[in-house]
Amino acid sequence: MNIQTQNIKSLTWFCSVYKADDYIVDFINDFLNQTNCKNINLLLINICNSHVNPEFVNKYINNIIKFNKNINCINMAKDPGLYQCWNYAIKEIKTKYITNANLDDRHHPEFSNVFTNFLDNNPDCSVAISPCFVSKTYEKEYTGTDKEVWFMKNLGDEIFIRDMYDEINNNSMNYPHACPVWRRELHSKLGYFNSKEYGKIADYQFWLHLLKNGYKIKVVSNFPFYLYYYNYNSYGNIDNYQTKSLINKIKRNYYKIP
């Protein structure tokens, strides 16, 4: 199944819609609030039976699609896993640039414009990133100013493999984090997110794999263009024992640390 739209656009957001009852309306509003929203695509991978009230979520998505031709949805009865959803979505997308969008994160209205313009003007950059605001409470809209900031860097800074791991504190430093924008063509050259071997840090491994092969990650601005919801029960924040084991694998494979 190839996703078709009337106009060729440069960026597609993709999202795994899982247990979305409390988030789907705010998430769609976040997308629709993007400047020049009609020039961006959104692809939803809807895990239909994961919702508390599937009828509400599925009906809402169907109504949104009916009135927004740049929003598409693929329905799945069973959850194949987060990164399998991502990989499936990426294979369907035809735009030059792609970004994963989490249901509970929020974007500055200029997020899409700033990131695509940066990639257009920096052909040597494969992945564009920015710092992020962090909230430990759920936010319906993008807000910042008074919040903690993660991954602070300056405009044009380049991220290297050495930046992605803090050896002193034995801590991963996944700079692309929750909202990078990257070139879709990377996957035809480097493959997809390998959750079979790297589980819930498959994105972290992919960015390291990219850097190891000479591709560049650059910072679009020192301004936080998205708001990350630090949810203690989210996919990336549970089962710390498994995470430590996977990080050790990263250390052996990319940093030669036994």
From TrEMBL:
PANTHER family found in the cross-reference section: GLYCOSYLTRANSFERASE, GLYCOSYLTRANSFERASE 2-LIKE DOMAIN-CONTAINING PROTEIN
Residue stretches making up the Glycosyltransferase 2-like domain: 17-190
Protein name as catalogued: Glycosyltransferase 2-like domain-containing protein
Annotated InterPro entries: Glyco_trans_2-like (IPR001173), Glycosyltransf_2 (IPR050834), Nucleotide-diphossugar_trans (IPR029044)
Xref: Pfam families: Glycos_transf_2 (PF00535)
Stored CDD domains: Glyco_tranf_GTA_type (cd00761)
Coiled-coil positions: none
